[in-house]
Amino acid sequence: MTEVVTIAEVTDLAAPLAIRAEVFIEEQGVSRPDEVDGRDGDCLHWLATDGEGPVATLRVLPRGDVAKIQRVAVLRRARGTGLGAALMRHVMAALAERGFRRATLGAQTEAIGFYTRLGFVARGPIYDDAGIPHRDMDRDLGDTG
Q: How many domains does the chain have?
């Protein structure tokens, strides 16, 4: 990642929803009802912006001291640049500062290596979510490096 990127928590969901629509609905064929699940109001949202505009997002559903990371989406133009990992590290540090002890997520099986490099450990069987194979993963938030 060579370009300056800003990562911030946001309450205006226009850009996060647009990124998610492009990645999940348009590219991956997820149905709109599966993507727009009515839970956004219960979640915390982060947005990464580069010189060209909004480029990546994720949301977090708080569950006590566990943070369920969801809807991690990076636009095609920024994939493979390290931006997704930077977004995840930033958010995990922010979550740890807020007192969350663990992070959990449902990883698309193609992304398990990405999350493993960030310290997540796969558990349980592979399952279908919106027509895409997933596996649950989690990690402690004490070490967010």
A: 1
Question: Which CATH number do you get for residue 56?
Answer: 3.40.630.30
Domain with 30, as residue range(s), is 6-104
Closest C-alpha to 95, from 143, 55, 56: 143
Which DSSP string do the residues of 59-127 spell out, in sequence order? Answer: EEEEETTEEEEEEEEE-GGGTTTTHHHHHHHHHHHHHHHTT--EEEEEEEGGGHHHHHHTT-EEEEEEE
Contact 53, 104 (CB under 8 A): no
User: How far apart, in whole angstroms, are the C-alpha atoms of residue 68 and residue 118?
Assistant: 15
pTM above 0.85, yes or no: yes
Domain membership flag for residue 93:
yes
Which positions of the chain have pLDDT values less than 50?
Answer: 1-2
Instruction: Report yes or no on 20 lying in a domain.
Output: yes
